[in-house]
Amino acid sequence: MEDRGNKSLLEALLFLSGEPLTTSALKTITELDEPEIQRLMNELVDEYRTRDGGVQIAEIANGYQMVTNSHYAPWVKKLVGSESTRLSLAALETLAIIAYKQPIIKTEVEQVRGVNSDGVIKTLLERKLIKIMGKKEAPGKPLLYGTTKDFLQYFGLKDLAELPTLKDLAREEAL
């Protein structure tokens, strides 16, 4: 299959998936080699960006996913009703602490927040935005928490390195 056919194949797989697909997953399905997949995906991402249509291909959670163009978010929200997917301020605060300090135990989260975090952590676990990463070698062996692939997908991040730094946040606040 030539490039156009291979790109169409990758595009079809992304469209049907609904989840980010890694290059290794695409390799297993298509039997193309990873450098070829990477090259074709970079071209597809550029083509979609240049076209500036209603759908884009984004690098999310160390894979690729078809997503709606953020320009159309107000209308997409009207269609799908995003109220049920919103996180409370307490959940966002807890999630930020876990994302930046992971792996972290619940008492450390509570020390930063200053309040009990049992319910919020339970909610984040149920929504699969955080996971138990193991146990800390300390008295009582408390559970260690960290973020998940679903966390990256929820926030549209390729990986944790894309989280804003303190400098970025300070700069945003100054504007």
Plain-language structure description:
This protein has 175 residues and is an alpha+beta fold. It folds into two domains: 67 residues, Winged helix-like DNA-binding domain superfamily/Winged helix DNA-binding domain (Arc Repressor Mutant, subunit A, Orthogonal Bundle), CATH 1.10.10; 87 residues, Winged helix-like DNA-binding domain superfamily/Winged helix DNA-binding domain (Arc Repressor Mutant, subunit A). It has nine helices and five strands. Helix 1 packs across helix 3. The radius of gyration is 19 Å and the shape is globular.
Features:
single chain, 175 residues, alpha+beta, Arc Repressor Mutant, subunit A, 2 domains, three-stranded antiparallel beta sheet, two-stranded antiparallel sheet, 5 strands
Brief summary of the model shown:
With 175 residues, this protein is an alpha+beta fold.
Any idea of the CATH topology of the largest domain? Arc Repressor Mutant, subunit A
Strand content: 5-15%
- Enumerate the strands of the largest sheet in spatial order, edge to edge or round the barrel: 3-5-4
The chain-level mean pLDDT equals 91
- Rg estimate, integer Å: 19 Å
Low-confidence segments, ≥5 residues, pLDDT <50? Answer: none
- Describe the global form: globular
Question: How is the biggest beta sheet arranged?
Answer: 3 strands, antiparallel
Number of strands: 5
What's the architecture of the largest domain in CATH terms?
Answer: Orthogonal Bundle
- What would CATH call the class of the largest domain? Mainly Alpha
Distance between the termini: 50 Å
Q: Which percent range fits the helix content?
A: 40-55%
Secondary-structure element sequence? Answer: HHHEEHHEHHEEHH
- What structural class do helix, strand and pairing data support? alpha+beta
Q: Count of helical segments?
A: 9
**Corresponding CATH superfamily of the largest domain:** Winged helix-like DNA-binding domain superfamily/Winged helix DNA-binding domain
- What is the count of distinct domains? 2
